[in-house]
Structure formats: structure tokens, C-alpha cells
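Two proteins were folded this term; both appear here.
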Amino acid sequence: MVRKKPTRAVILLPGTIHFEAVIASFSDWFQDAIVIAVDKGIDKAEKIAPLRCNSDVAVDYWVGDFDSSHHLEIAPTLYREKVRYPAEKDEIDTELALSLAREQGIDRFLLLGGIGGRLDHQTALLFLPVQYPATTFIHTDGVEKLHFLEAGRHYHFLLPLGTTVSLMALTDLAGINLSGVKWPLSNYALKLGSGLTYSNEVVEEQGIEVSIEKGDAWLYLLPADSKRSL
């Protein structure tokens, strides 16, 4: 049987990943997606290896300038190909990983381990959807989750009561509709930089529904039992 060409990719970044939470929500990704480790993100390879039942390696591509991973001892059997880039370049390593995947027709990405760390790199990751239109992004460490919302699409998320919900605008937004939360919105327009859509809360057992007519935004989700705060 010919294996279908992958349409999605898991990107392993150097930050913290809560693997039990990731497996609970996204284990199916490791069955049919390609996996790309970005520089020191390769240190997660051994943990994800058991999840990749349909592959003989944990990581398909290990990419970067390797400035943060040169000291690591990584077994060659954990990855299929190592792609080195110069330290002085125009792109961050994550952009290079995305470009490599997109050349293979990948348009759906799960970013793991990019929450926390240097603020400049975190900001660059948050604005990736603006740079790569018509691409689906989920950005998470397993606990905090960010889902990129495509304009013109309707989304339904089945979430526990009390889940924190924030709509994080990357551009001016128009036609925001949000229901199932403590402070719903209907055909609302939001200027970039406004905090009005932050720290909402799920109040309906059937979850939430959200859509935006125009603009780019992340939907941020945090479980009610999380200890994280401002």
C-alpha cells in the first residue's frame, strides 16, 4: 500500500514541552505528519520516538545553525537527515524549518516547545501566520494552546467550563463572533493592540464557537486548573 503524502508537520522547538498533555491532545499528529527538530529541539527526539509507529526514525529533519545544540550527543538513528544553515542568515531557524516543509506541500503545522524563552523569538513565532497565509498553525507546550484562526472560517471548540479564552489579534479584526463565553461578541471590530478580547471564560458545556470575517488572530486557551497567571 502506498503511503499518503503528508500534509502536516510537527516542529520541535527548544523550549519546554509537557508531553503527557501533548499526547492527550495531539497524538494523531505523530502518526502521519513529518517531524522537524529545530536546533536544540532535537533533545525531544527520544521522547517522541515511541509515538511514531509509522516511521523508522523519531525525526525526519534536524535543521538549524546548531549554535545551541553543538554540545548534545544525538544518536544518528534518531533522525533521517541533518540540514545545516550558516549562523549569519536572514531567517530564524523555525522559518527555515517551515520553508523546508512547505516545499513538500505541507500546510498544517503543530509547533511544540516555542512558548517561553527569548521574547524576540516568541514574537517571531506568533507572527508566522501573517508571513505564511493559507497555512494552519497550532502553537502549544501542551498546557497553553494557541490556534490560528483563518478569516472566513467557523470554529467550534469543545472545552471544559472555566477554560480561559483570549482572542489575540495580529492585525485589526472585523466581524468577530464569539459565543459560549462569559463575555460574548457579535460582529465586533477590534483594533490591533486592544486587550478587550483577553481573559474571557468558557461558561457553556457545549464549548465555544468563534469566527472572524477579516484579519489574523490566535485563539489562546488555558485550562482552568492551570497554575499559570500573569
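Next, the second protein.
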Amino acid sequence: MAEQHRQRLSAEARQEEIIRAAVDLAGERGVDGVTTQDMAKAVGITQGAIFRHFPTKDMIWLGVVHWVRGRLMGVLDMAAAQGTDPLDALERMFFAHLGFVEKVPAIPKLIFTNQLLKSNPRIHELVRSILADYENKVCGLIAQARVRNLVRPDLDDAAAAVMFTGMIQGLVIRVPIMGARKSLVEEGRLIFPIFLHGIGAVRTLA
């Protein structure tokens, strides 16, 4: 039993290596430019070994999106938990997300790639689930802020949540294309006060 347990952990560790290699390669070349042979070379195993862990290439990308979801939501939950009030939690989430993307620049190429979304319904549904969970979390914080009179009383929580996630999506797509000199976080510091103004926040960005 102990031997089987060690083997299972070894398989999980190898799958993690493959997923991380896929993430890194996607950041360099985009999803379309990554082959399973590239992944195998990066990990130091044969292409056949890749398919012993993942039956198809789509299953690798599905594993990658699951990996992104787990890491991103963990970062956001930790950031929000440190907030002194709902607005502070939103601010911390916003900059934690931008910081995470700076560390893992492949994320926009993975989450917003039409090829993945169209070719695999399971990936499409998972990405939709990630966005829905994210916006629900933001909605909850905005609702708490409204109860505490920290935002406009007539604020539409769902619309504000869409604005919040839209700001992040816009920044992570725009900055690499435009070649901005500022980092994502620096660009975010110019944008977030506008969001606070739009929702009628009674505090300013620290």
C-alpha cells in the first residue's frame, strides 16, 4: 500500500511538471505554438510519457486551466482575507490578480484563447465557471460595502463586478500589445481610483 501511495504521488508530481512546462511554453509561444514534444523536452521525458499521464493534448490544457484556477483563486482569497473592509478587500484582490499575471504571463493566452475555448467544451465551461465564481466573490464584497454605506446605495452589484473584472482583462491584454513602460500593477494604480469613483466609494486608494 505504501508503495502504491508513493507511485501515486510520483504521478501527481510528474503531471504538475508537465502542466508547469505547458504554462511556461504558452507564455513564450502562445497555446497554438506549443506541441507535446515541446512539453516533453522541457520536462526531460519522452513524448510517449506525456501521454501516459494525459491521454490527449486537450487534457493537458484542461489540467492547465484547473491549475490556473487553483492558484489564482488561492491568491485572491488570501488577498481578500487581509482586507480591513470590503473596499480594501477589493483593492487587494485587484492588485493581487495583476501581480499574479505579472508572475505568470501565460494566463491571458490560456484563458482568452479562442482555440482552447472552441475546441474543448470542458475548458470553455471551466473558464465560464472561473469567471462566474470570481464575479460572485466581487458581488459579495460590493454588497457588503453597500450595507456599510461605503458605496452608492443604488449601485448595481453585478454591473460593478463586470466592471471590476473587465478592468483586469483590459489591462492584461492591452499592456503587452501596447508595450507600456509601466508594469501591470503600476497601470492598475492609475485605473483603480476611477473604479472607486464610479461606484461612489467613500474612501480613496491608499
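The chain has ten helices and no strands. Confidence is low (pLDDT under 50) at residues 1-9. These notes refer to the second protein only.
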